[in-house]
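Batch job 17 of 40 flagged for manual review because the log was empty.
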Amino acid sequence: MEPGNDTQISLFLLLGLSEEEELQPLIFGLFLSMYLITVFGNLLIILAISSDSHLHTPMYFFLSNLSFVDICFTSTTIPKMLWNIQTQRKGITYEGCITQMYFHILFAGLDDILLSVMAYDRYVAICHPLHYTVIMSPRLCGLLVLVSWVLFAFYSLLLSLMVLRLSFCPEMQIPHFFCELSQLVQLASSDNFLNNIVMYFAAVLVGGGPFAGILYSYSKIVSCICKITSSQGKYKAFSTCVSHLVVVFLFYFTALGVYLSSGDTHSSHSRTISSVMYTVVTPLLNPFIYSMRNRDIKQSLKRLYLMPSIKDQLY
């Protein structure tokens, strides 16, 4: 079969998390609940930050962007899976599969680089507190977010265009609940050597680059904290990083599990579980991690909750 997709491809079949019929209502209810909690929780974070002038700082600006990206991230995969379960269909069109893959790569990459930018923000705040407002200016913060979007829009476009050159069998079965890049490349019926080279090189460059930035930032942060004489000062400085560290651990640990298992065709179940962790569970936990560990967010959420009752008293 010649490379290209102008052949017989019309439909891909997403096999989902399980093919057992009795488990479908349970999976539907579980993932619908997690999706609604993810969207509602991250929307609350965005509303709390946007409505409170005290939170209009670089750290919370990046956090609100991360919450928005997490909503988009889960929305690229979960609604389609829920629709397939509800309609008892497994099909996704070729165009829909490529589109889903594009946005999944885009928002996963944005999650990655935003975590790196947030680590840099903590580095400047702890290691250069007197110059924090000058370095982390609104212009720089906006530029960092804009560059992140442009960079990963082209990155995901490149990987998606690389998939377009591959040929697939008609009605190919994908042992996953969404169209994942590594799955499509491995299941192609044409030569995928170039795709594998580009995919793994890009994963090391784009994934390893931000992670190296996080490690560098926290190495400097630890060095600065060790120089603080008072234990209270050390605790205060470190406490501003705990939420971010937990999110970084969750994201990279689960994403690494997907990456390591992507080359093994016999580990589709473990790869699917790892994908669920970083595409569903991590965005679900982010609002809870930041709201429970952050006093400013908790106070802002309380004011947001009490606002209707205050307005009723005034009027």
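Reviewer: the log was empty due to a logging misconfiguration, but the result itself is present. The CA atoms of residues 11 and 273 lie 24 Å apart. Unflagging and moving on to job 18.
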